[in-house]
Amino acid sequence: MAQHPLRPGPAAFDGKTFAVKDWIVLGLMAVVILAAPLWLMADKGNSVAFIAFLASLLCVYRLRVPAWLRLLLAVVDLAVVMPLVGASSGTFAHVATVICMYGVLALGLNIVVGFTGLLNLGYAAFYAVGAYTYAIFASTQARNFMPFGVYPLSGNWFWLFLLLAMLVSGFVGFLLGLPVLRLKGDYLAVVTLGFAEIIRLLFNNLSKPVNITNGPMGITPIQPPMIFSLRLDKPVHYYVIVLALLLLTFVVVRNLQNSRIGRAWVAIREDELVARTMGVPVVRMKLLAFSIAAGLAGMMGVVFAAMQSYVDPTSFTFMESIVILCMVILGGTGSMTGVIIGALAVIVLQLQILKDASSYLTSLTTAGILNLPSWLNPAKYERLIFGLILVLMCIFRPNGLIPEKRVLQIKEKLGLKPKADAGGNAASKEG
Amino acid sequence: MNQLQVLVKIIPQLLSDGLALGFVYAIVALGYTMVYGILEFINFAHSELFMFGAFVGTEVLLLLKSAGILADMSPTVALLLSMLVAMIFSGALGVTVDRVAYRPVRSAPKLVPFISAIGVSFILQDLVRMVEEAKNGKFYLNAPTLFTNRITLAPNMVVPEKTLYIVGLCLLMMVALTLFVSKNKWGKAMRAVAQDRETARLMGINVDKVIALTFLIGAALGGAAGTLFSVQYGSISPYSGFVLGMKAFTAAVFGGIGKIPGAMLGGILLGLIEVFGASFLGALTGGVFGSEYKDVLAFAILILILIFKPSGLLGKPVGEKV
């Protein structure tokens, strides 16, 4: 069989002939890649165009052309088209920002769940710690208990807090990991879940005796980031900040993955006992994975707090942890591009498709065409959809949409054909 | 210390509340522990089977009420009837969930079934909410009042009648389950499968059937506990399973997961600790931590047990299989 144009590979057009079908697919993809951004640029408020634009990004990723060309296309799309569109349409910039934020969170959780094979069901707790760290000091809240300093701190502190929250969350992750990491599998999962609930309840109740978190009322307003006296409070500003953070995280995590540390993580995942026998410092490596993941979540928490200008405990429930886990499992545990695409898919579903569908159906109802009872509103069925994703993925594709490359390579060496290719390029259909 | 004196006076009251809650925990914990004993798998969706049972039981009571029969029939019969229907529905759902979502992934790595169970739990929450909203326009249900009498057991101890029913029925279920597992042939098969699944299969035990039976019994108990819970506390929502399920799981781990007497003991102790903790926390810490920290207390207990004595009160430490 000719090499398929949809699968990324090292070389392009390497002399092997494509079937006619493959040329047609390639042509269609090229059309999408070129047309969708132009369409979106021409009609900056069209949500179908926006989804087409996001789909074109996936096409770029799947296209079998030299890597530099793919990179160029991606840079043009992400760094030129998206900010231009975002400047005029705040909603799309917001969606893109949220995708990038969850991309970072999914990358972080992927270190724990994907690389190291530990199930963390309380990831939102670290996100909450980061968000509250910034929220308390960048609002009037800190006046209640801080003996010195002028609050709220100005937005210039945002940049320092990115780092500070990362350290604080990482430290909390370290403290939690210290006693619990000797637990196995689902026990660990339940402990992390319990821990996350404790953190959430603490934030919910720490309004007395000293008002630290303002309880269920939450903290608002929170200072937006600033560069000197320039306030960065437009959606497109956040988009640029978060995109930069996502790229930074990606590079750092990729380097970690290919280092001694990353190999140690995978060794622990595959067989902890063997890893220990081979001299991998299991406990230290697990702690490292836990703390780095927690730190990344803390960093994103700061962005979240600044962007919403409001934090309250309801943003950090168990559901939040599950949504992030869903992204990792959907995209492919252990696969870095996979989990980012998982984040994209889940957020587009959550913020774009479900919302659009429900507002469309509401408009039909008001127009009198269709009488849809309120209980059928699709926006209410997030849990159902995420539940279905989890169960179906577990049964049919436990390795995710884009399985980790290392697993594929090992399977190839063992002479096992990766499942994804067995059924007539199932992977390309679902990508 | 005046506050403490007041608290000492209400100890009998706390004791009865704690026992009622503790027995409900114990019955739900049995479902977790039985499944874990056989499959080494935390059935995360068990809390939803409890919630489902609570809805079915409450709907039966409401049906009886709207048909005008409830006022005429004895509350005991109404409670038993609704419990029975809830047990049948929950049990059937439990077996279905196992067949659809767990059996296909039984041989997969350990975390896969667990994640599948989380998915099932979310699906069930939304499905129940959908049906309730379509039917009643709101997603929570209020149970009709069955028992209004209060019974004086001792000079300082006046207990609502329903608490006595709950404790009695839970005890009955526990005795029945213990007898079933220790005397009945199927119970023996369950113990064999829990001990060694492969050898049990070689001895001619239909392992899949035994697993289905375990889910059936566990889920039916969960459903019964759900009905009792809804009668005791008066209202139920699709999301009330989650926290209760977490606590029941805590109870199962507390007693030693996989051990049936352990789940019973752990449940009762946890219920007492929670009720007493909620009342005494404020008095002991001078009002800094009030009863709003009772869930924190339960989760903290879970974490502490898992760290210091993961095998629980009645369990034995197990070595790592290589």
Properties at a glance:
heterodimer; A: 431 residues; mainly alpha; ABC transporter involved in vitamin B12 uptake, BtuC; 2 domains; two-stranded antiparallel ribbon; 17 helices; 68% helix; disordered C terminus; B: 322 residues; two-stranded antiparallel sheet; 4 strands; 73% helix
Helix content percent band of chain B: over 70%
User: Into how many domains do the coordinates of chain B divide?
Assistant: 1
Q: Structural class, from helix and strand content of chain A?
A: mainly alpha
Shape field of chain A: globular
Tell me the number of helical segments of chain A per DSSP (H or I, 4 or more residues long). 17
Low-confidence stretches of chain B: none
Count of spatially separate domains of chain A: 2
Number of helices in the DSSP assignment of chain B: 12
> Secondary-structure element order of chain A, as H and E?
HHHHHHHEEHHHHHHHHHH
Task: Using the coordinates shown, work out and report the CATH topology of chain B.
Answer: ABC transporter involved in vitamin B12 uptake, BtuC
Strand order of the largest sheet of chain B: 1-4
Tell me the fraction of residues in β-strands of chain A, as a range.
under 5%
How big is the Rg of chain B? 20 Å
Oligomer: heterodimer
The string of secondary-structure elements of chain B, in order, is HHHHHEEEHHHHEHHH
- In round numbers, the mean pLDDT of chain A is 85
Q: Mean pLDDT of chain B, as a whole number? A: 88
Most extensive chain-chain interface: A-B, 45 and 49 residues
How would you sum up this structure, described in words?
The complex is a heterodimer of chains A (431) and B (322). By secondary structure, chain A is an all-alpha fold. Chain A has 2 domains: 1-88, no CATH class; 99-348, ABC transporter involved in vitamin B12 uptake, BtuC, CATH 1.10.3470. Chain A has 17 helices and 2 strands. In chain A, strands 1-2 form a two-stranded antiparallel ribbon. The two termini of chain A are 20 Å apart. Residues 8-15 and 419-431 of chain A have low confidence and may be disordered. Chain B is mainly α and 322 residues long. Chain B is 73% helix and 4% strand. In chain B, the strands form 2 sheets. In chain B, strands 1-4 form a two-stranded antiparallel sheet. In chain B, strands 2-3 form a two-stranded antiparallel ribbon. In chain B, a hairpin with a 2-residue loop joins strand 2 and strand 3. In chain B, helix 3 packs across helix 9 and helix 6 (161-183) packs antiparallel against helix 9. The interface between A and B is large, with 45 and 49 residues.
